[in-house]
Amino acid sequence: MKYMSNSKKDRLNGEEQLVFLDYLKHSLENGFSLINSIELMPVLWPKKKKLMQKLVKRMKDGNSFSAELIQLGFSKTTVTQVNLALQQGNLIECLNQLSILSRLKQEQVKKMRAELSYPFVLAIMMVILLTFMQSFISTQFSDGNEHSGDLVMLGLIGVVLAGIYFLARIIVLLNKQDYDSMQRLTKYPIIGPVILLYVNYLLVYDIGMLLASGFSLQKMCEYASKQEKGSLQQALGQKIGHQLAEGTNLEKIVEQEVFLPNSLLVLLKTGSERKNLSQSCLMLGRGLFIDLTQKIEKLVVNVQPFCFILIGFCVIGMYLKLLMPMYSMMQGL
């Protein structure tokens, strides 16, 4: 138990990861090397001084930066992005992109919490009311042959529990952010298209960066397949590289791979030079990011009305639970 507690204590949550990325980015922008930037962390971030001192020590002992990021709680996909950028000399730009994404995520999480606060209070009041009805009112009109109200309430409780499980499952998969998790998330209703757009953005951005570094498609796949095992980039690089080696047509690969947008195929067909193609990919990435932002905001805004609808059904269920036994007794008079 002590080990688990220490392990959890040594991991950064979402907000802390954003702070870490921002501090690191600003240090690098000011001309410090990666190791010097990390050495500055205990000074720049007193709140996490002990954790940062441990990080500095492990880095000086020869541990890789990517391994340390995983230990700090970053996802494999994020770590792979950092690793790719580090090897290509684009770390600052990569950190800037990750900071923007993390900040967007944190802002939307805060909005969602604000949107859910009022429905949450209503839900608590509804549970209290239901308990009161069950304890004091329903017993006054109990009818051993009338269970329709109970069935309605059981159905609503089942829906609520299924919703909670659904939400918890999404959170677990989002925290993993590996290939399998993302593939499962794209099949979920409502959130699936948003996840797909998010992955499209990440991959198009990575492809643009690698093209700028002079990589061919085959070299990209070979390079990506050597990255963090289980990450989105590693799994895709291995899969697409294998398909290319078998002689599969590129157009067919893009069409079959759910994580690669068809707009990418249009760019690849233009036959432009790698530099121009890289710029086009980065422009496409910016467009995907704008779409992603809009979809996330729309999703968050629609959360509260959905909760109110669910609460409304629960209120109807409570009334039915109360009135059905009364109606049954009146019929028996």
TrEMBL record:
Signal peptide: none
UniProt entry tagged with the keyword Ribosomal protein: no
Residue ranges of every copy of the Type II secretion system protein GspF domain listed in the record: 20-137, 207-325
Transmembrane regions listed in the UniProt entry: 120-139, 151-174, 195-217, 299-320
A Pfam family recorded for this sequence: T2SSF
Subcellular location: Cell membrane
Superkingdom assignment: Bacteria
The family this protein is said to belong to: Belongs to the GSP F family.
PANTHER family on file: GENERAL SECRETION PATHWAY PROTEIN (PTHR30012), TYPE II SECRETION SYSTEM PROTEIN F-RELATED (PTHR30012:SF0)
Name of this chain's protein: Type II secretion system protein F
Organism: Lactobacillus gallinarum
